[in-house]
Amino acid sequence: MKLTPIDIRKWEFKKGVRGYDKYEVQAFLELASEEFEKLQQERREFEQKSKRLEKEIEEYRRVEKSLQDTLISAKETTDKSMQNSRKEAELIVGDAELHADKLMDSARKKVSKIEDEITRLTVLRDSFMVKLKGMLNSQIELLELFDEVNTDEGEKVVRKEIIEEDKVDSEPVIHEQNDEDVQESESEEQSHLQV
After folding, report:
1. What stretch of H or E contains 159?
2. CA distance 155 to 159
3. Rounded to whole angstroms, how far apart are CA atoms 26 and 9?
4. CB 19 within 8 A of CB 13
5. What are the boundaries of each domain within the chain?
6. DSSP 3-state percent helix, strand, coil across the chain (nearest 5)
7. Of the residues 28, 60, 98, 102, which has the maximum number of CB atoms within 10 A of its CB?
């Protein structure tokens, strides 16, 4: 049976021959009833407080789970971001190395072309020097020939040879045609025109 403060106040004891003092029992029952009522009130307050605390604990658990989920998500996002950054860095480095290789190949080709051109120009220079030396040697020989000729007649002959050589070198070649050749070519042209 559930006992309440009212039950305690209204409880009646059986009377015996020499029973308890009625006022004393009443005072005790009243005191016990008040204490019991206080205990019940405290119990109700504790139950309410317990329910409120349970709700708060449940809310804290929900917040804690949300924070854990957020931390896990942030960690995953950070890991993915780091992986993406590493991959991007590797791609950038790879592109830079490829570009550097292309630049180096291009530079090597240019250097090779320049070296080839230097070789070609060196050969041309050497060839020119040989020709120039040959020409200068022939001029020196000619000057020595002038020195050897002591007589006026000899000088005239040498001068004449030099002048003739210069003329042959400087004058264009002209084919001389005699009158018969000219007439013959003119008659051929006329016969072609008539046809």
Report:
1. helix 152-170
2. 6
3. 8
4. yes
5. 5-161
6. 85, 0, 15
7. 28
